[in-house]
Amino acid sequence: MEKDKVPQDDENVYENTFKVVYAVDKDGNYQKVPTKGWEPENIALNQAWETIHEKVSEARKLVEEGKVSPLAYHIEKDMLSPALLADYVGWSVKKVKKHLDPKEFARLSESELQQYAYVFRISTEELLKTN
Amino acid sequence: MELTFEHNQSAHCENGAVSNLLSFHKLKLSEPMIFGIGSGLFFAFMPFIKVNGLPGSSYRILPGWIFKRVTKRLGITMQSQTFRDQDKAMLELDNVLAKGLPVGVLTSVFYLPYLPKALRFHFNAHNIVVFGKKGDSYLVSDPVLDTTVEISYEDLKRARFAKGTLAPKGKMYYPLNVPERVDLKPAIVKGIKKTAKDMLGIPVPFFGIKGIRYMARTIKKWPTKVSEKELILRLGQLIRMQEEIGTGGAGFRFIFAAFLQESAVVLQQDWLKEVAAEVTELGDRWRDFAFAAGRICKGRAATDDSINILSEILMECADREEKIFKKLKQISL
Lengths: 131, 333
Prior knowledge:
The complex is a heterodimer of chains A (about 130) and B (about 325).
Chain A: E1 19-24, E2 30-35, H1 39-64, H2 70-77, H3 82-89, H4 93-98, H5 102-106, H6 110-120, H7 124-127
Antiparallel strand pairs in A: 1-2
Chain B: H1 13-24, H2 31-37, E1 41-51, E2 54-60, H3 65-74, E3 77-81, H4 86-98, E4 103-107, E5 126-134, E6 137-141, E7 149-152, H5 153-160, E8 172-177, H6 184-201, H7 208-225, H8 228-243, H9 253-267, H10 271-299, H11 304-328
Antiparallel strand pairs in B: 1-2, 3-8, 4-5, 4-8, 5-6, 6-7
Helix pairs in contact in B: 1-2, 2-9, 3-6, 6-11, 7-11, 8-10, 9-10, 10-11
């Protein structure tokens, strides 16, 4: 890739920062060149986020319908899984999965709620919400 | 406590962290030099290993291996440790910083609040250098950023103890002994030979040139095997592995070309410059692949024809890489 052909397709992925790629100058010598992004990379990133947002919306809907506990929403929002969340809180996957049931979730103690809230970096009040 | 630490932005975090750490210890090596000596270039296509639920591919060797090979090949002694106790891990970091030494730290991208939001996925093998402490904040040289940043104690602790695949377990490392002068020549030759061997000689279909051809054949079958939506997500994943931040463009091929160019001068072997130019052309073809795949994703429409074109580009990349690495395999001092 030539230096002056390094794409600058800015979709604000890098939030006014930039990344560097390696490209050649007129004499074929390599140097680092800053870039704000490139179309295929932006498309691929955007569609990856779209998938995540779809999952979050789906989880939110299920929580609102009372089918699952808010935990399901926070798991999707932080791109975790019950297994990974279990790893973070240090409980069994079985126990975490049980808390996806709204009835079981309602029975959690304040200290258990706090442990979940800590993993999600939110307050226990926020843990009960889906926004 | 703040050191004078020279922050050089790099394309790839592992190269960059090592390069910046060594530079502090007066050993100036460029990012491509670290990458090449560490035999960082690779190719793997393992569709049965799912990354975010999608077939996995990689253009580089496993995280941590560049670091291991570079230190070994250059005779650098590194202190490297992991921890069970999170507070102990932070305390040990403070202790080393207090000695006036910058420290390489392994982190999860997801828990680094200073990174652009769009890039924060659960990637657990991100290398940063911590070079000081100011109040409750740590001064960070993140190799992929253009400037240095700060991070709180709490955030850094979280990032060091992320769970899941490649969990960093608080890993930190710093040079104990860096030779004043190193002989780059044998290290470069070893680095190139190992890369050529990895690309040509692993007797399973998923790695090196075979892996590229395997990917070319596999994606051709996707239109009949999976839904269009799934197909587009799979292509997106391939693009990301090849072009997202950290790759230097064209799945590390351009960094490798820059390394060959630098090596031609060190070894006084002009033919390496020609190979470097061939790798540049090869990299451009990989970019063609990403661009064509991106257009399919953008239009949300994959036809057999458009997928066949992708497959043909990959076959061509494989042929080019085979030629290149057969030449490089012959390298000697």
